[in-house]
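Final report, Chapter 2: Outcomes

The project's central promise was a pipeline that accepts a single protein chain and returns its three-dimensional structure in a standardized token representation, suitable for archiving and comparison. That pipeline is now operational. To close this chapter, we reproduce one record exactly as it appears in the project archive, with the input sequence first and the structure output second.
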Amino acid sequence: MDDRQVRIKRYKEIIAVFTRHGFGMLFQQADSHPFLVKKRGVSDQDVASDNVEASAGKHLRMALEELGPTFVKLGQILSIRQDILPDGVVKELKKLQDSVPPFPFPQVRTLIESEFHDSLEHIYQEFDPEPIAAASVSQVHRATLFSGVQVAVKVQRPEIEDTIDLDLDIMKSMAHLIDHTRYGKLYDFNGMVEDFESAIKAELNFMEEGENADTFLHHFRRDEGITVPKVKWIYTTKRVLTMEYSDGLKISDLEELDRAGLDRRKIGERIATSICNQILRDGFFHADPHPGNIQVLPDGTVVFLDTGMVGRLDETSKEMISGFFVGVTTKDSGMVVRSLVDMDVTVDQKDMKNFEKDVDTIVVKYLTMPMDEIRIDDLIREVFHTVYVNHIKIPHEFTLLAKTLAPLQGVLEKLAPELNAIIIAEPIAKKLVYQSFSLRKVKKQVRKEIWRFQGMLHEFPAVMQNILHRIGEQDFSVPIEIKGGDSLQKQLSRITNRISLSVIMLALSIILAGILISFGLIAGNSGVTIPFALNILKTGLIVSVLFLLIIILFLIRSYR
């Protein structure tokens, strides 16, 4: 069977599954697509009788589980998209199970030996053929290195990458079709699929997961009682990941935690503080911190597992999120609104005004509540709903952020009901906000901007030569159209054009002089010789005087 036939077969299978679960209408306007041939024997009438009474969310979940790992992963991502899906559907999608029967040990052996070009017995001293965990993309085995170190070996399912590549290709085609519908115009489904592709591709590359673990380990050095298992790089490839074995307790097993004499409140504080630090301080956070991915060692150390899915935030995003938390904790509704509206700067101004009004209503509601009664999951859910009804597009990073924060309050309540994520986040957010106004931060930003303008220095002489040439040829103007009064228009145009040119020249002179002077000062403090720095300063002054003379000349001519 060639690739085209495989693709068509999978396409039909996807359509059949969705139709059987009551979603056949999704494909009604896609009949012209070359791969969407008529579904003989499959129609909306084939939907089971109980489909009428069952929720759409339930059947969507069942369809995704039936279609396999790619769609399960997609459903897990969609489970946090309260900006585009109703609450009932989101609730159902959160039930998606990524647990499947393990694949046979002979296949495990074959894959490992093909990756390392050696026999399994030469790689590991001991290797347990029974997996300790199995998911749709991989399964984990316990093993022992020849050094005696106990390790967990994560092995990718055979041919899973080919399966996911095919499904992603089909998803892209479907997203393209949906984007031509009215609903698709509101939400960038092509962009969503691209984000999903990036996330799942990263999860398939175990080398990248290992690098994520190393990054976390580096960041966690500043935190007490937080760690991740160390990667054994000699025994790691793109499809096999070997890490130190963590024999910790599940945070969901409260009885075991109590029997071990562990302080549940302290554990909860460490988890919440770490997640807040990851987001607000590091801009690099674990995007799937469900209870199954967090363990506690006998000494109370919290261990984060499975670092395949991470989120990254730049400085601007971190400051926006910090502003949100500070606004909530200080009961500053304006600060909260400003932080949220920055999510989508391309949105229509009318929609933005409505969004601000709706967000302000939410903020007022929560700011009247005692701080210890504010649940971060409820707050995020209401904000996402408001985003949804106002057609605001949420960047991918913020959906991952919601995926990280939404379950946090539930985890804390099980460990210690008195803990509150908002209160824990407050001092971390305030610290970051204060740092953004520090002299060091301002100096760093100024230096960054100066070096950004450095490239302009190379282009500036040619640009100025062209401008001066056009001025000499009387071919440089700033056109202004005034309705009514041709004679007045001509007179005002003549004066305004020259004044406008004067303002432009003045601005350019100030910018150039400032850049040259600043560059000269920086150069003088960075090992460049003083004569060189003085030459830069002289050049800046000469150019500024030249521009000033030109400006005076044009101002005199404007009043003739």
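Archive annotation: Confidence is low (pLDDT under 50) at residues 29-54.
This record, like all others produced under the grant, will remain available to the consortium after the project formally closes.
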